[in-house]
Specification:
Blueprint: E1 4-9, H1 16-35, E2 38-43, H2 52-68, E3 86-99, E4 102-114, E5 119-127, H3 130-142, E6 145-147, E7 159-163, E8 166-172, E9 179-180, H4 183-192, E10 197-203, H5 207-219, H6 224-231, H7 235-239
Parallel strand pairs: 1-2, 9-10
Antiparallel strand pairs: 3-4, 4-5, 5-6, 7-8, 8-10
Helix pairs in contact: 1-2, 4-5
Length: about 240
Amino acid sequence: MPRIKGIVTLRLVKNEAQNQLHIELQQCLMQTFSQYHCELRLLSKATCSTNGDSGRIGRAIMENAEKQQPARGAAKSTTAPEEEWKEKVIQIRRVTKVVKGGKKLSFRAVVVVGNGKGQVGLGIGKSNEVIGAIQKGVSAARKSLVTVPLHRGTIPHPVRSKAGASFVYLRPASAGTGVIAGGAARAVIELAGVQNILTKSMGSNSPLNNARATLEALRELRSFEEIARNRGLTIKEMLI
């Protein structure tokens, strides 16, 4: 899963009350960033100081941050439930809106949510802060889930779809092929639980439109049982 690197600058002063406030703020940021698999790197001028209270407070903050961040190469915990939903942030953009009196800045996040078992959704969130935009995107994605009919780790039949100026073509693949896809299409397909597939993205390279086209293609998939039932045949009769 791609990780987002956030840089937070803390300027420490000699006032103990304000220093305690900075420590509490740092702990809150660490908990918030860890929810979205982000890496938080703290920069403080006080960490360069060897004398004074500000230097000690700065070093304490850096030590606390290192303890909370997992070590590189450490094994991931396997105690998480299998039905846990996973999120991937496809794109974060800063949006500027011209209003009376100046410009209003906000952020737009495109998020994909899936359980790896045939359910995936796409959501867009907008907020004045990045974390708020991601939270809204996750909430919107869970409200628009698509069920994908998987067949032996791949899709049952070829399908193509379009969203805006983006075209996506999906084709089944044999076992061992893997996910041949890139960009936003790969994120959607992996979270849907597809293990072997061939894809081709054409037209616009917009991450949002590519994700929408891929999700629409997955929505159009039909299982063998559904097609046979609509034709009034059994699966054996349909495949003969």
